[in-house]
């Protein structure tokens, strides 16, 4: 979709493909950004969520400070698709949905021409309809493996997580644009600038 109105852009893509870097490139071109991962971090710190996660997964996912241990929680849910579905559908998606709507409301009142929803599970949460345009980020496998190692993931973890989020090719086909994160940050910046000009009808 192309228009001269304020637009909402969905950002999805391969795991460890550099979606955050793409979001920052759009920010440099004047877009606001909603960071779903940051939102989830904040949600996991809430007492009501801690209580729900403890009830669902037991005390092992709670650290010595009474907070959710995301590493242990991740090890559990990314080994069991049913548990991952329960966590996301019952705890995470309802709350991120509220935060996403708040971000859109703030954006509508701002001077920014675009809002990027950096939300990797946009399709899984059923929120693609909030977006005017969707972009899919991809990167070479060796880069993604290197970035996974920087996150401290053990060998095979990237493939394991990908297996839990099937339908990646379907997301790519539904996207309005594909960003290839195979070069430098300047390359990303140029791709972001081109899409911003195209989608917001800016010179």
Description of the molecule:
The chain has 203 residues and is an alpha/beta fold. The protein has one domain: Rossmann fold (3-Layer(aba) Sandwich), CATH 3.40.50. Helix content is 53%, strand content 13%. It has nine helices and five strands, in the order βαβααααββαααβα. α1 packs across α9 and α2 crosses α5.
Structure described in brief:
The protein has 203 residues and is an alpha/beta fold. The chain has one domain (7-200): P-loop containing nucleotide triphosphate hydrolases (Rossmann fold), CATH 3.40.50.300.
Overall average pLDDT: 91
- Please identify, by name, the CATH architecture: 3-Layer(aba) Sandwich
CATH structural class? Alpha Beta
Strand order in the sheet with the most strands: 2-3-1-4-5
The number of helices is: 9
Describe the protein's topology.
Layout: E1 7-13, H1 19-28, E2 32-35, H2 36-44, H3 47-57, H4 70-77, H5 81-108, E3 114-118, E4 133-138, H6 141-150, H7 157-164, H8 168-174, E5 177-180, H9 185-200
Parallel strand pairs: 1-3, 1-4, 2-3, 4-5
């Amino acid at each position: 979709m192309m228009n001269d109105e304020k637009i909402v852009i969905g950002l999805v893509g391969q795991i460890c493909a550099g979606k955050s870097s793409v979001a920052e490139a759009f920010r440099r071109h004047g877009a606001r950004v909603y960071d779903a991962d940051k939102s989830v971090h904040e949600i996991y710190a809430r007492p009501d969520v801690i209580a729900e996660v403890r009830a669902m997964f037991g005390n092992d996912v709670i650290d010595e400070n009474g907070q959710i241990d995301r590493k242990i929680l991740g090890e559990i849910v990314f080994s069991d698709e049913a548990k991952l579905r329960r966590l996301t559908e019952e705890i995470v998606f309802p709350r991120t949905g509220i935060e996403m709507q708040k971000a859109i409301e703030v954006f509508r009142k701002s001077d920014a021409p675009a809002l990027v929803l950096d939300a990797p599970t946009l399709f899984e949460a059923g929120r693609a309809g909030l977006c005017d345009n969707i972009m899919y980020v991809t990167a070479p496998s060796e880069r993604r493996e290197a970035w996974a190692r920087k996150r401290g993931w053990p060998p095979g973890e990237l493939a394991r997580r990908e297996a839990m989020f099937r339908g990646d090719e379907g997301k790519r086909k539904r996207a309005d644009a594909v960003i290839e994160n195979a070069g430098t940050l300047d390359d990303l910046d140029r791709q972001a600038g081109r899409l911003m000009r195209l989608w917001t009808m800016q010179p």
